[in-house]
Structure formats: structure tokens, C-alpha cells
Amino acid sequence: MRTWQYILRASLVYKWPLIAHAILNISISVTLPTLIALTQRSVFDSLTGHATAWFGIWELIGILVAFGVVATLQHTGSVVSYYYGAFNVRALLQRNIFAYIMSLPGYRALPHSSGEAVNRFRDDVQLIHDYLEDISNLLANGLLAVVGVVIMARISASLTFTVFVPLALIIVVAFYVRGVISRAR
User: What fold is seen in the domain 3-156?
Assistant: First the structure.
């Protein structure tokens, strides 16, 4: 079995905490900041007299306070779901590793030092869960980038183009140079 297949199977065992954490992570990283930014824009528009919202300044401030309360609840739920999923996935992986070691004959149980076995139990299991967390963060940050580009394009398409074309060129050049450097080693 390949590593990615094992990680996928391990994540499916405790999928609901991981899914809950991913949803909360996306809502914390994308939805809430976008709503707060749009509300702040309405606050500043109402101060200048160019308001498109029918709310007054105090209602908008109340909405921002409510967003703060929601953000606190979302962070709390995200932390709870993260640690619930993390501890359960780690415990499952450690139990499976230990069961495998105990199923081997005594002379083959630990082919390397006992310190390496301890590292496998502690560090490798942690890295697998961190990998699952990184996937969630990548999805959230990618969605935030898409939402940001859409909002920027609605404000000024030429400014968005001016900002993102050099950024895209830098990314392409960096990937090319990384390949050249790794071939030269």
C-alpha cells in the first residue's frame, strides 16, 4: 500500500472531525474575513455619505461585534475538532504500528535502534496528521485567493491584472529556476 493510500484510509476512519475542521478552517479563513471587510467598507461608505447599505453606523458596528463573537466560536470549534481528530488519528496510527511490531518475531521487531522506533511513534505519526492539516489550509488559502481576486477584479480589472501578472511570472520563473538548480546538483 502506498503512503497516500494509507493516509487516505486513516483519514476516512475519523472523517467527521477532519471534515468539521476543514469547514471551520475555510469559514475562518475565507467567509468571515470577507464579510468583515465588506462590512467595514459599508461602515466607511456610511461615514462618507456614499452608503449603499440601509444600515446606520451603529447597526454596522453591531454586525462587526457579532462577527467577532462568531469568529471566537468558530475558532473554538476548529480547535476542538482539530485536537479530537488529531489525537484519534495519531492513536490509530500508533496502535497499528505497535500491533505490527508485536506481530513480528523478536529478532525482527526493531531492525533499527529503539530511539528510531520512538521517533516513528512520535514524529512520523505527527507528520501524517500535519499533512492532513496542510491540505485543509491549502484549500482555505486557495479559496481566499480566488475570492480576493474576484473582489479586486470587480473594483478594478486593470489593477488586478497589473498586480497578478507579475506575481504569476515570478511563480513560473521560480519553478523553472528550481528545476534548473536541482538538475545542476
Answer: ABC transporter transmembrane region fold (1.20.1560)
